[in-house]
Structure formats: structure tokens, C-alpha cells
Amino acid sequence: MPSPQSRATRWVVKSLIAPILNAETPIDIQRKRLDKLVGLIPLPRGVKTRALKIRGIPALWIDTKAKNHRVILFLHGGAFNIGSIQSHKEFAARVGQAANANVLLIDYRLAPEHPFPAGLDDAVSAYHWLGVQGYSSRNIAIVGDSAGGGLALSTAMRLRDGASDLPACLCLMSPWTDLTMSGESVKTNATTDIMLNPLWTRQLAHHYAGPDSLANPLASPHYGDFSGLPPIITHAADDEILLSDARRLTKKALAAGVDATLEEFSGVWHIWHTHAGFMPESKRAMKKIGAFIKRHTAEA
Predict the structure, then answer these.
(1) Residue 39 has pLDDT above 90, yes or no
(2) Domain Alpha/beta hydrolase fold-3: where (predicted)?
(3) Is 60 helix (H, G, I), strand (E, B) or coil?
């Protein structure tokens, strides 16, 4: 039975957020509307932030009062074209609190101005910056939602291929891992997904990767090699168009010998975790994400 908060939030997502994600609306307008709507949510009590730049990349250090060396590199969603520190700072802070970790949230470069692999390059740079600050790979979890989830997976693949130390774990919430949109759920859930629509996602995929790189394994990690990756937890809603991406990545990871877990949730929607400040269903999912990060990362 959906909570009263879930019913109210479903209306907000369907009526206010989904219309922003429209293929006919210019990208700069989508960005402004999303930041204005979601960015108004206040940070959790006691959380402090500090703006910084990492090798030219705007970033936000989110201090959750975690008294340890555990840290999250958070890669925001937005189909590689929208989303920002402003839209995701409250969400990232909630993840940090759940995991008893501080958070580095970055404004990686976005398409169409900066197509693939610009965002990936920025994510890798931010990860290496954490190492320079003294954080061991054992302390670091990479977390991402939607496109950020796909980017988190691509980042781990790039690090592995470059013989870098890998993060302790990956947490992927409703990840977008196949820009070719070949998953079955793109069709079967097209009418049940209250937030995403295939026309919008296909358009923004082309902005990011162009027609020639949609199946590049570092743009669409679904087509990549999963061997040697760190433990992965993936969350997805059972009625979202990206459900197949979550299912297939977990299947491929397990086949490659990776410790991978998929949890599917009913009665919710794409990245419902963002409402963990007030929605019980989101709080429960966030608690699972936090427990996974605590289990796989070192505090010191």
C-alpha cells in the first residue's frame, strides 16, 4: 500500500518534473527549470557545504559530519545533458548521511556543449583528486543516479583499464547503461514510467554520444567488460523504462564474477530515492544503499 507521501509525490513527479523532460524544450530551459524546482529543497539539518574547483571542474564538498575517511564521489543524473550540483545537492547529502560518509558532488561537463567523453574525463579526474587528498580507494564509493549511474559504471571501467586502484564499491540507482535503448522495458514500460519517455532519452543520448558512439562501451557500459569491477548494488523500479538496463548489467556482472546485487521495487518510479527526506519508500531504499556502502568501504 503506497504511503500518503508516495501518492502526493507521484503527483508532483508526474505533473511538475516529467513535463520538464521534454524533447521539444530547449536544453538550457530544461536545466533552469530542474534546478529551480528541485534545487529549492533545503539540505538536511547539520549538513555544511563548501564550493571548490577540481582541475577546473566545479564541485561541492558536502560535510555530513562523518568523522571518518569514508567518502562518496556522487555523479548526478540528467541524461548527460541536464542536472547539476544545484539539483542534486540535497539528494547527495541524504546518501552521505545514510552511509556515514562525506560527499564530493561534481558538475561534470554536459552535452551537447561537451559530448562524450568529457563527462567521463571529469569523473575520472575527480576520483584521482580524492586520492591526492589522501583518500584510499578502500574509502571511496562511487554513487550515481540515472545517467550518473551509467557514468559511475563507465568510470570504474576506465579506471580498471588504466590500471588504477578501483573504488571499494559502486551504487547505481535506476542507472542508464545502454544509450542505444535496446532494452525490452523501453517498450514494455513506456506507458507506466511516470517520469521518463523514450523520445526524450533518445534525443539526449544523441546529444551526448552522437550516432557513432551510442554503443561505445564507455558511453554505454552495457556493452563493456565487467570483469574485475568492485561490488555493485543496483536499484530500479519495476515500471520504469530503464529496468532492463539494471537487470542486464547485474546479469553481466555476475557472469563476470563480480559481486553484484539487484533490488527491484514496486509502487515507486525512476530514482525515487531523491525523496528520502519525506517519503518512507525512499527512506527504506536509501537505508539499503547506505548499509551497502558501509559494508564495503573502510572508515580509516
Answers:
(1) no
(2) 72-273
(3) strand
Q: In terms of Cα–Cα distance, which of 129, 123, 124 is closest to 80?
A: 123
107-123: average pLDDT: 98
Instruction: Report residue 267 as a C-alpha cell.
Output: 509502487
C-alpha cell at 171: 551504487
Secondary structure (DSSP) of 160-173: HHTTPPPPSEEEEE
Averaged pLDDT for residues 9-30:
96
- Provide the CATH number for the domain formed by 4-13+29-296 in this structure: 3.40.50.1820
What b/e readout covers 47-79, taking b as 16+ CB neighbours within 10 angstroms? bebeeeebeebbbbebebebeebbbbbbbbbbb
Domain ranges within the chain, ordered by starting residue: 4-13+29-296
pLDDT at 285: 98
Handedness of CA 134, 137, 139, 145 (dihedral sign): positive
Residue from 255, 208, 260, 214 nearest 236 by CA: 260
| In contact, 230 and 168? CB cutoff 8 Å | yes
Q: Which residues are catalytic?
A: 146, 240, 270
